[in-house]
């Protein structure tokens, strides 16, 4: 254990040092993201390092239990990134050792506006993405597009709670039930978001989350797979670590079938090495109690901007419509067709005022060069996705945005519109 004197010194110096480093590393007064951790995470991580037990252990297990309870799922399996969580989820459902696995070359319905590592695992497990359009006012997948896209080759629906806005999971699950399809929720940007009366991540067969440094809570790198299906959870534990039996609940039963093989090195499937570290587990279990307070700040910021920027609704689509609890990964804005200015003009101006901007994830993925390397299908013309690719962006919305930063945004928009409309 780290002594109290060292703990006090870390606590005393941490915030000042962090603020100094942030000011050196960015030219923006409102960057897209800032680290969400504090001295508590550092102390717990250092404790792991001093113990020399730094790979997946008790702290990871503690965070898995805390996070799955928070989401409302029976099982949490932590991995080294949200991208790995997506790969693991699809690897579980396509594995020949599960009942009724997804078939190779089957179609996975997913929104065209997404992030690359939602799409890559679909291809990596031998399936094909079937892209459908999204709604402009939510940036989430269009429900009717999903319904109409289902065909005899479809095996799964993979909705993305984009920018922290919850998809209509009741409707999506109804479509899946009607057509005997799996549902994987990509909730990597939506920690704590609510659809109906449940947190996102608790609806589908499996859900995934990311704890990258820019997300609501961070383990630096890190991710989580959650599920209520015990068989899927056990398969995920096997595939996460080489395909061996060490973490399985029934490992003794399996090991007894192979008495000639050392049970520490008994491999029952073909897996990966997606293990997290104890340092990541330490960060996670200290971060999670802070999550709802971070969400409260993000929602208050967005409400403030929605109200003050609504006067520009002739030209802008603001993130004002959501089903329940939108947790605002960022503050997303779409410029309407016919506006007398371009996205480039607006974002360049905002950045000149110290407000960092970026496009909405990968935009319309079928327009990315990587799409030329894979086998995919689409339903419809993806009109909204094309518009988002060209006209949408977001600004940072996080726990370090306060009154000064909120007013800075309003002042910048006011000045821009005076000169451009």
Folded structure, characterized:
The chain is α/β, with parallel strands linked by helices and 421 residues long. It folds into two domains: 48-289, Type I PLP-dependent aspartate aminotransferase-like (Major domain) (Aspartate Aminotransferase, domain 2); 292-420, Aspartate Aminotransferase, domain 1. It has 14 helices and 14 strands. It has helices spanning 4-25, 39-51, 58-71, 82-93, 116-124, 143-149, 169-179, 230-240, 251-256, 278-287, 291-309, 343-352, 383-391, 403-420, and strands spanning 75-79, 107-111, 128-132, 154-157, 182-186, 194-195, 198-199, 206-210, 223-227, 316-317, 331-335, 357-358, 377-378, 392-395. The strands form three sheets. It has an eight-stranded mixed beta sheet, with helices on both faces. A four-stranded antiparallel beta sheet has the order 10-11-14-12. The longest helix has 22 residues, at 4-25. The protein starts with a helix and ends with a helix. The mean pLDDT is 95.
Structure at a glance:
This protein is an alpha/beta fold and 421 residues long. It contains 14 helices and 14 strands.
Question: Given the C-alpha coordinates, what overall shape results?
Answer: globular
Note the beta-strand portion. Answer: 5-15%
Give the radius of gyration: 22 Å
Structural class: alpha/beta
Task: Give the CATH class of the largest domain.
Answer: Alpha Beta
């Amino acid at each position: 254990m780290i002594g109290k004197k060292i703990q006090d010194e870390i606590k005393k110096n941490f915030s000042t040092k962090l603020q100094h480093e942030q000011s050196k590393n960015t030219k923006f007064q409102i960057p897209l993201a800032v680290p969400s951790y504090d001295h508590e995470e550092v102390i717990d991580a250092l404790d792991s390092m001093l113990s020399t037990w730094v790979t997946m252990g008790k702290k990871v297990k503690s965070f898995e239990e805390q996070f799955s309870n928070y989401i409302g799922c029976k099982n949490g399996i932590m991995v080294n990134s949200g991208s790995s969580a997506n790969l693991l989820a699809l690897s579980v459902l396509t594995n020949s050792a599960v009942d009724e696995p997804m078939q190779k070359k089957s179609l996975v319905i997913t929104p065209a506006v997404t992030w690359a590592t939602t799409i890559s695992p679909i291809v990596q497990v031998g399936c094909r993405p079937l892209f459908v359009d999204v709604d402009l006012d939510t940036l989430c997948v269009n429900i009717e597009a999903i319904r109409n896209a289902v065909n005899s080759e479809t095996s799964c629906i993979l909705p993305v709670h984009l920018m922290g806005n919850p998809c209509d999971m009741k409707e999506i699950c109804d479509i899946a039930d009607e057509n005997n399809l799996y549902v994987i929720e990509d909730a990597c940007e939506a920690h704590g978001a609510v659809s109906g009366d449940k947190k996102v991540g608790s609806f589908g067969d499996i859900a995934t989350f990311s704890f990258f440094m820019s997300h609501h809570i961070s383990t630096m790198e890190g991710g989580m797979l959650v599920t209520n299906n015990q068989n899927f959870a056990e398969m995920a534990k096997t595939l996460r670590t080489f395909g061996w039996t060490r973490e399985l609940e029934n490992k003794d039963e399996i090991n007894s079938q192979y008495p000639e093989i050392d049970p520490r090195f008994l491999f029952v499937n073909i897996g990966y090495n997606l293990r997290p570290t104890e340092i990541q587990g330490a960060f996670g279990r200290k971060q999670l109690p802070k999550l709802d307070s971070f969400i409260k700040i993000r929602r208050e910021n967005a409400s403030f901007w929605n109200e003050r920027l609504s006067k520009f609704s002739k030209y802008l689509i603001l993130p004002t419509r959501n089903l329940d609890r939108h947790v605002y990964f960022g503050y997303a804005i779409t410029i309407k067709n016919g506006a007398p200015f371009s996205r480039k003009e607006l974002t360049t101006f905002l950045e000149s005022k110290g407000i960092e901007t970026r496009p909405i994830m990968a935009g319309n993925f079928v327009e990315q060069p990587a799409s030329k390397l894979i086998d995919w299908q689409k339903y419809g013309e993806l009109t909204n996705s094309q518009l988002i690719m060209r006209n949408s962006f977001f600004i940072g919305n996080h726990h370090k945005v306060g009154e000064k930063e909120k007013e800075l945004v309003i002042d910048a928009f006011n000045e821009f519109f005076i000169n451009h409309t």
